[in-house]
Amino acid sequence: MMDGVDAAAVMDVASAVLLLVGSVFALIAAIGVVRLPDLLSRMHAATKPQVIGLMLVVSGLALRLRDPSVLAILLFVVILQMATSVVSSHMVARASFRAGHVRKDLLVVDELSDELTDGLDHRGAP
Questions:
Q1: Which residue windows are transmembrane per the record (predicted)?
Q2: Is residue 26 part of a domain?
Q3: Three-state DSSP class for residue 5
Q4: Greatest distance between any 2 Cα atoms in the chain
Q5: What is the mean pLDDT of residues 36-41?
Q6: What domain range is 65 assigned to?
Q7: Which of 54, 70, 85, 117 has minimal Cβ neighbours within 10 Å of its Cβ?
Q8: Into how many domains does the chain fold?
Q9: CB 18 within 8 A of CB 75
Q10: Mean pLDDT across the chain, nearest whole number?
């Protein structure tokens, strides 16, 4: 007891807040995928806020469930999500750039065009 407040109740409230904020991040990611103008912006919206939202939701679940075996599985889920979303979005972006599906007028920095014109990078989509 902390001055009349149960620690479990505080953890439950923190869990609810994390679950709600994580859900809002996932909603923002979904709206970004639908509303943003080009492929690269949509991929950014699909990966960054979605991974942060997942981390917040998993943190909320960890606070709510408080079971060590469940915590290990949740940690494994977060690690896999962080590893796979970064690699997969990078590979899809490179392949879509090579295939000509990227609007080059919206790019601020374009480091891949030089590699493609020099013939140094032959991997990925034709």
A1: 13-34, 71-93
A2: yes
A3: strand
A4: 70
A5: 85
A6: 7-89
A7: 117
A8: 1
A9: no
A10: 84
